[in-house]
UniProtKB/TrEMBL annotation:
<dbReference type="GO" id="GO:0007234">
    <property type="term" value="P:osmosensory signaling via phosphorelay pathway"/>
</dbReference>
<dbReference type="GO" id="GO:0000156">
    <property type="term" value="F:phosphorelay response regulator activity"/>
</dbReference>
<dbReference type="InterPro" id="IPR050351">
    <property type="entry name" value="BphY/WalK/GraS-like"/>
</dbReference>
<dbReference type="InterPro" id="IPR003594">
    <property type="entry name" value="HATPase_dom"/>
</dbReference>
<dbReference type="InterPro" id="IPR003660">
    <property type="entry name" value="HAMP_dom"/>
</dbReference>
<dbReference type="InterPro" id="IPR036890">
    <property type="entry name" value="HATPase_C_sf"/>
</dbReference>
<dbReference type="GO" id="GO:0030295">
    <property type="term" value="F:protein kinase activator activity"/>
</dbReference>
<feature type="domain" description="HAMP">
    <location>
        <begin position="205"/>
        <end position="257"/>
    </location>
</feature>
<keyword id="KW-0808">Transferase</keyword>
<feature type="transmembrane region" description="Helical">
    <location>
        <begin position="12"/>
        <end position="32"/>
    </location>
</feature>
<keyword id="KW-0472">Membrane</keyword>
<dbReference type="Pfam" id="PF02518">
    <property type="entry name" value="HATPase_c"/>
</dbReference>
<keyword id="KW-0418">Kinase</keyword>
<protein>
    <recommendedName>
        <fullName>histidine kinase</fullName>
        <ecNumber>2.7.13.3</ecNumber>
    </recommendedName>
</protein>
<feature type="domain" description="Histidine kinase">
    <location>
        <begin position="393"/>
        <end position="609"/>
    </location>
</feature>
<keyword id="KW-0547">Nucleotide-binding</keyword>
<dbReference type="InterPro" id="IPR035965">
    <property type="entry name" value="PAS-like_dom_sf"/>
</dbReference>
Amino acid sequence: MVKTLNGKLSLIYIVIILAMSLLGLVSVRNLITISNDIDGLLTNNYKSIQSVENMKDALYNQQQSLFLYISGDKKEGLAEYSKNNSLFLDNFYFEKNNITEDGEMEYVNSLDTYYLQYSQNFFTLSEIIKNNGKVSGYNFFFDEIKVNYDTIVKTLDNISSLNETMMINSKARVENKTKIIINTTILFTLASILISFFLSRHLLKKILYPLNNIIDAIKDIKTNSAYKELEITTKDELGELANQFNLMAKRIESFEKSTLGQILKERNNSNSILRSIDSPMVVIDKDYKVTMVNENFIDAFDISDEKPEGRYLTHLVNDRSFFSVIYDITLNNCQWDFLNIITLKNKNGDILYYNISIKEIKEEDLQVGYVILLKDVTHLKEIEQTSKDFFATISHEFKTPLTSIMIGTGLLESSKLGDLSYEQRKILTTIKEDGERLNLLVSNMLLLSKLESSTEIYNKEYNSIEDLIKASVSSNKGIANYSGIILEYNVDINVKPLSCDGEKLVWVLNNLIINAIRHCKDGDLISIRGFLKDNKLNITVTDTGVGILKDNTTKIFDKYTQLTNKDIKNNSGLGLWICKDIIAAHNGEITCESDLGEGATFTIIIPYN
């Protein structure tokens, strides 16, 4: 008797495999028998009939060629006769070697005799025409050759009829044999299915009986917390499973009695900690159901449900933008720790700003939920806005007196108010340079204020890249020529128009070109190039000037960064930062490659999509 579960299951498999194997062998044998009968039916007789039809066609064409021959076209008639003679003989010899029925050989021998006579008549016809003319040839054709032709056709019809009759008889035999084979296969299949079903059912019932007892015991534990010891009736793996289940049930009962109070105590402590946090906080499981939530979160989202635990977060929070952020982060398995600010409206309609932190909860490397913490930064946002407004106001207030200073300096420098000494002109030049630098700082701060206030200041439309580069080069050509610097540009023909704010993109190019001029000397070259790469617009501004220390190629894009150079006046430190901000608003990036003494290359990359 088989004692192991593996052995019992193997016994079921063996029974099924034997039944299927026996059924397969019988089916294969029957299929081979049917295949052989059908092959004999379709192959031999059909090929004989096909050969007869081919001989008829060839003989008919020979008759037509004899008419051509008699009528005077001997060359064409002789060629056609020879071709069809070969075709007739090929099919004749095939038929002679494919004799399958009684009496078929007699017909083939007669056909051989008649066709030999037909061939001899052709040569006789040739002599008659040669000696006696066409009329005698026509008489011989109808008196001898036509009679010979009809005899051959009749013989071919007899061969064809004989094979057709045998095909019909063979078809009937095959059909009867097929019916017998089908009925036998069906009966054998049904018998195999019934035997396999009842035998397998009997064996499975014996195997599953102890397993069903274990399932019933688990259900009792789940519903009634009743630990009933199972009776072990087998010595196989299921018997061992029942024994281990009894041991586990006893341990669970013991564990529950000793630790249930401790678990409840720890849960209460967790709830107390959650309630003590002064920021909105909620804990959700992986299905977005709320497991714990504090009062601050309930107040922030004006949740009216008295028992939010167990409810879906989407049912409690009506702000779709908030849940969209949560869903995007959790869907991508991200950890978001106060990286961005989200805006919410409270029940009074006031806009509040929150930094959001999301942490994943894991147990034994398995994701079980998330902790979501919101930090109110509304006050900080208000301070930030006040600071921006202050800088904008100060910049505007500086603009008017600076303009007056620049105008006054220009008047003094022009000598319209009187001649200046060398020392006075030197001081005036210093005042003018400082005024220009301060004016640039104020202009950049005003532009910076606009950029930080809203992205709506960008007026995007399709612009020709070549036109934008050409406009920037034209506006800086004069100062480049004055400084002895060569300024050139080139735009590839395949560069397409780009949806962008053309005015601000020209401002970026102007800033890069002016910086390059300030870092170049007489005879240096500044080259601007526009081209496509990976469906992105690339604009490079390359100069052969003094270059930038390699470690500073990323720092120069930071706000208020100024690099010291004894030959160059310091600027405001805002230009490249604003360039970076404008390009970022176009979903692009700007980079710098340089080193001291090797010039510099600034690259703007903006995607077309």
